[in-house]
Write a structure and sequence with these properties.
The chain has 249 residues and is of the alpha+beta class. It contains 8 helices and 6 strands. The strands form 2 sheets. The chain has a 4-stranded antiparallel β-sheet with strand order 3-6-5-4, sandwiched between helices. Strands 1-2 form a two-stranded antiparallel ribbon.
Length: 249
């Protein structure tokens, strides 16, 4: 705490403040960046959850207009993000740092664009499975966001169906480590390249709902035409990977 007397710092405190501020600012900036990465991963996961929850509606062949518009998605994803993070992005009184809030709003915009682009497919009558699933949504939203930002978001896994989600060397090392560890919701957070780049990976695990396409019997084609992985609930499915340069502002 800084002690102020009649608007001035004491000479001793001022000297200490001036000497300690750069390191303090650097540590604060690092913590803020780490929190930003965690929240971006949480937001993308919230979008995936919303898409998963609405699979019966999206794949209903009897209905045309599904009521799953970009605005509907925005309302649902903001509620799910609040459930996971206790942060209300709808409130202008949010205590988030402006750069963090701006990145989250960019990801919201990219996510809504993905839902908008899929409206024709989603609202087709007479067709069941639409292939608008959490993985598809997440990959497209991550790519749209990353093209418009210095921050990179990616879904990745050791055995990707979509080769664009193939892990780089760092991601492969972390995924291999996660696959042999107990289930954890804690993200992996590391500064690499001499502290110039933050890498964060939030693990994703298979739920019971995922096993319709990714479970047993292994090798049998699922509804989308891919061989099933033979996974079990709780197995590592992959991770949401975030890269943020230290100078991203």
């Amino acid at each position: 705490m800084l002690v102020v007397l009649k608007g001035f710092l004491s000479a001793g405190l001022l000297c200490a403040f001036l000497h300690s501020t750069p390191d303090g600012w650097a540590q604060t900036a690092q913590k803020e960046t780490e929190r930003t990465a965690e929240l971006l991963a949480t937001f993308l996961d919230a979008g995936r959850v919303v898409v998963e929850q609405h699979q019966p509606l999206i794949n209903d062949p009897r209905k045309g207009e599904k009521g799953f518009s970009p605005d509907d998605f925005e309302r649902l994803v903001l509620n799910e993000f609040f459930r996971q993070s206790q942060i209300d992005l709808k409130s202008s009184a949010s205590s988030l740092p402006p750069p963090t809030r701006n990145l989250l709003m960019r990801l919201l915009h990219a996510s809504k664009e993905v839902v908008a682009d899929a409206q024709f497919v989603i609202n087709q009558r007479g067709i069941g499975y639409k292939n608008f699933i959490p993985a598809t949504f997440g990959s497209q939203a991550a790519r749209k966001f990353s093209k418009q930002s210095q921050v990179t978001i990616k879904q990745t896994t050791l055995d990707p169906r979509n080769l664009q989600n193939s892990p780089d060397a760092y991601e492969e090392t972390v995924l291999t480590r996660l696959a042999h560890q107990p289930t954890s919701t804690m993200p992996i957070v590391e500064w690499v390249n001499g502290g110039r780049l933050l890498r964060t990976m939030m693990p994703i695990y298979y739920s019971e709902d995922c096993l319709m396409c990714h479970g047993n019997p292994k090798g049998i084609l699922d509804i989308s035409g891919y061989p099933r992985e033979g996974a079990q609930a709780g197995d590592l499915a992959g991770a949401i990977s975030i890269q943020i340069p230290a100078d991203h502002r």
